[in-house]
Amino acid sequence: MQISLLKYIFLIMVKVISLGGSIVAPDSVDTDFLKKFCALIKEYLDEDKSRKLIFVVGGGAPARLYQKSYREIVTAPDTNAQDWIGIAATRLNGELLKALFPGYCRENVVTDPTAEINFSGQILVAAGWKPGFSTDFDSVVLAERFDAKTVVNLSNISKVFSEDPKINPSAYPIDTISWSDFKKIVGSEWVPGKNVPFDPVATAKAAELGMQVLVAGGKDIENLNHILYGRMEQFKGTIIG
């Protein structure tokens, strides 16, 4: 898809933002980032009361810490149990995010993206749903439901790389990539806590729906500003799809 068409689609639709737990609570809650994030979001929404944003938040440090503790204690860790621990962490972060937007977010934190949802405010906050995938998948389900053609994936990486640069120093950043090529990077199997730009289950669903996913560094507030206002010629990150 051409950038101009992507810009047009992104300006007229509900925006769905998958907010990685790695930027909300990388070790502890990042209050400095959240202050800047909230200020930008409130300014954006106050300019036009018809604007709506859906935030789907991940688990971050609490999820990793408790999942790791569980694996160290039991001899045969259960995958579903690890997922439920991670889901609980996403819901904690979701409650925090909702509390930061009084008046903007009127509904309870969404924990089932397929349930009846009354989106009466300007912000809807969602968290983990059930085992088998990450909140990336929840963001795709909500995007489909609310006719959003693009999901913005904000995390602690600024772009998709050809391989994990921590493992292969020769890995290179990618500006645009097809779903078929992206699947070769992330694989097809979900593992709790798997460190990939967009989880394999969400990848398969987004590819099936023909969605676009923008991968960007979540703490780059200026870049997020460009994304919100559709200034895609200034966008820094990776476009998937």
Topology:
Blueprint lengths: L2 H10 L2 E5 L1 H4 L6 H17 L5 E5 L2 H14 L5 H21 L23 E4 L8 H11 L4 E6 L4 E2 L11 E2 L1 E2 L1 H8 L13 H10 L2 E6 L3 H8 L9 E3 L1
Parallel strand pairs: 1-2, 1-4, 2-3, 4-8, 7-9
Antiparallel strand pairs: 5-6, 8-9
Helix pairs in contact: 4-5, 6-8, 7-8
Plain-language structure description:
This protein is α/β, with parallel strands linked by helices. It has one domain (3-240): 3-Layer(aba) Sandwich (Carbamate kinase), CATH 3.40.1160.10. It is built from 9 helices and 9 strands. The protein has helices at 3-12, 21-24, 31-47, 60-73, 79-99, 135-145, 179-186, 200-209, 221-228; strands spanning 15-19, 53-57, 123-126, 150-155, 160-161, 173-174, 176-177, 212-217, 238-240. Strands 3-2-1-4-8-9-7 form a 7-stranded mixed β-sheet, with helices on both faces. A two-stranded antiparallel ribbon has the order 5-6. Helix 4 (60-73) runs antiparallel to helix 5 and helix 7 (179-186) runs antiparallel to helix 8. The chain is globular, with a radius of gyration of 17 Å. 42% of the residues are buried. Mean pLDDT is 91; it is low at 8-12.
The secondary-structure element order is HEHHEHHEHEEEEHHEHE
Name the shape in a single word: globular
Could you tell me the radius of gyration in angstroms? 17 Å
Order of the strands making up the biggest sheet: 3-2-1-4-8-9-7
Helix content: 40-55%
Q: Strand tally, please?
A: 9
What is the CATH topology descriptor?
Answer: Carbamate kinase
Number of domains: 1
The secondary structure category is alpha/beta
Per CATH, the architecture is: 3-Layer(aba) Sandwich
Which class in CATH terms? Alpha Beta
Query: DSSP helix count?
Result: 9
- Cα-to-Cα separation, first versus last residue: 8 Å
Parts with pLDDT < 50 across at least 5 consecutive residues = 8-12
Per CATH, the superfamily is Acetylglutamate kinase-like
- Sheet-strand content, in percent, reads 5-15%
- What is the residue-mean pLDDT, rounded to a whole number? 91
Largest sheet entry = 7 strands, mixed
